[in-house]
């Protein structure tokens, strides 16, 4: 990411898009006070952060960053142009915190430490090599995973105690986690879940000297049984295809670029772990394409990822919070509608965006 930004700036291709309000509306989130909900509930907390409330009672926080800047420094680096929608202390229950990779817009030391203070039983789930970073922060509740590994979880909703076991399933097997016989959980029923570490097309780094030292991932979380069973795929941060520099105004999905390969991992995810009730799929930070396309999907890539992974519904992430690349800040949702029409999908009700702080039910 650092080298990509440097290249864009050196070539004069990194402008400063207008962030004058209004941009993305921000509302106060309304979290459920208990573990009871009849549907899957997803609340966007800005950029790639989503809080998911499962009907089983499971509560998962993806890629939380609650600082003004996504940077190793508090005084420089990308600054929010939309406010933080709530305080971390206002989130009532956090069972798992799932981290896609180590970049500063997805992993924040102050945020991690505040979660640990407010929710000491929260379990962090990270890619291979990143557990050491958490241990150096004094956090022992961390499990690291490689691509295609699964863990099965049984959680006490009363004490927060968790039993975690490595699934014996192979990458070609994708049965749901074991569940209690009742499909109507009570406030005291054990909560079961399966968390799967899955591929993405990205990279990782915390400094200029550790690029690729830890794994970048997408994730699947499934929980519940019967009518209460739900599954979520979290794309984190990913590219889809590597696009060369094309003439201005050209369509890089045009006939002359059909030969460009796409990342096969997403079809594999759909075949081996899908379908999913909800996909959380990145749609922003993609210009200039010849620099960022290997790492960041644009909305046309995002719709292809949605189809490849066999998500029934999706919400757009990785936009609307920090200026990371020079496209207009409101362009991602506009292009998303065009990309949906391109695939003859409805503009709303299938792959949507929402206000920061807004909750949707699935």
TrEMBL record:
<protein>
    <recommendedName>
        <fullName>Metallo-beta-lactamase domain-containing protein</fullName>
    </recommendedName>
</protein>
<feature type="region of interest" description="Disordered">
    <location>
        <begin position="163"/>
        <end position="192"/>
    </location>
</feature>
<dbReference type="GO" id="GO:0070292">
    <property type="term" value="P:N-acylphosphatidylethanolamine metabolic process"/>
</dbReference>
<dbReference type="GO" id="GO:0070290">
    <property type="term" value="F:N-acylphosphatidylethanolamine-specific phospholipase D activity"/>
</dbReference>
<dbReference type="GO" id="GO:0005737">
    <property type="term" value="C:cytoplasm"/>
</dbReference>
<dbReference type="Pfam" id="PF12706">
    <property type="entry name" value="Lactamase_B_2"/>
</dbReference>
<dbReference type="GO" id="GO:0070291">
    <property type="term" value="P:N-acylethanolamine metabolic process"/>
</dbReference>
<feature type="binding site">
    <location>
        <position position="296"/>
    </location>
    <ligand>
        <name>an N-acyl-1,2-diacyl-sn-glycero-3-phosphoethanolamine</name>
    </ligand>
</feature>
<dbReference type="InterPro" id="IPR036866">
    <property type="entry name" value="RibonucZ/Hydroxyglut_hydro"/>
</dbReference>
<dbReference type="GO" id="GO:0008270">
    <property type="term" value="F:zinc ion binding"/>
</dbReference>
<dbReference type="InterPro" id="IPR001279">
    <property type="entry name" value="Metallo-B-lactamas"/>
</dbReference>
<dbReference type="InterPro" id="IPR024884">
    <property type="entry name" value="NAPE-PLD"/>
</dbReference>
<feature type="binding site">
    <location>
        <position position="104"/>
    </location>
    <ligand>
        <name>an N-acyl-1,2-diacyl-sn-glycero-3-phosphoethanolamine</name>
    </ligand>
</feature>
<feature type="compositionally biased region" description="Low complexity">
    <location>
        <begin position="165"/>
        <end position="174"/>
    </location>
</feature>
<feature type="domain" description="Metallo-beta-lactamase">
    <location>
        <begin position="59"/>
        <end position="319"/>
    </location>
</feature>
